[in-house]
């Protein structure tokens, strides 16, 4: 998170926003804590996937929000597959 220029407080806020956006797009219902976790862990997952594809991870607040959103959507989709 520090490499992206985002501190811990900002990561929690941005992660919450990213998780909330993913929750709305994926028609899921989760609480605030889960949205924050989805956004933060989602950003980590998305950065890892981008690294595997040799794509430069996005930097800064907006980049963290975008990668968090994409990663959170991926995690929600994986969760749905596992539950079925």
From TrEMBL:
Keywords: Cell membrane, Membrane, Transmembrane, Transmembrane helix
Sequence intervals crossing the membrane: 6-22, 34-55, 61-82
Localization, UniProt: Cell membrane
GO cellular component: plasma membrane
Membrane topology summary: Multi-pass membrane protein
Primary location recorded for the protein, binned into one broad class: membrane
Family statement drawn from the similarity comment of this UniProt entry: Belongs to the UPF0410 family.
The protein's name: GlsB/YeaQ/YmgE family stress response membrane protein
UniProt organism field: Rhizobium laguerreae
